[in-house]
Design brief:
Order of helices and strands: HHHHEEEEEHHHEHHE
Number of helices: 9
Helix content: 25-40%
Distance between the termini: 49 Å
Number of strands: 7
Radius of gyration: 18 Å
Length: 198
Amino acid sequence: MCPLYVAGLIGPGDRKSDQPIAERLATGNYDQLHHFIADGVWDATPLESELLNRADRLVGGKDAVLVIDDTAKPKKGDRSVGVAAQYASSLGKAANCQTPVSLTLAHGEVPVMVALCLFLPESWTANVSRLKRARVPIEHRTARSKPEIALAEVDRAMAANAGCVLADAGYGLSAPFRQGLTERGLAWAVGIPQGVSG
């Protein structure tokens, strides 16, 4: 079911939940696809490590950069994990969306995404019953800012070789984020709006 689900997520169609994907790609296999999505539990660590190793072999090195960003994905409804009214830079306004924090290792014009972690707004982290109903793992139920998520993912991605960490002002505004990069011995360049110090 994994290849089918991934094809449904990146393929055509506005609705990316299990039922519309099953209708488009898995006629008669809705129950199997739903079970894979709702009940499938596996340890992603070995896959994430292999992705990081391959990305490092492909584009890592002193001339590589680790780019930190987040991109809001507009999404209807309120049951998908992390969906809430929040600022969507792609739309230039607040909208109902999910926002993953991403780390991309890049060299020249070749980017390879090495981490993607979903940000949970307070409307999620403050509602224990909602977190349980959506089966959010216990270790992901505490409130974390996007810069905090980014630093945790940087720690995981430090096996890759990058000469510099880059981020926009959404992260540059956070003094603890900038200090965290410095404490890790990383060279960095982030957007910092005029008038922000420390």
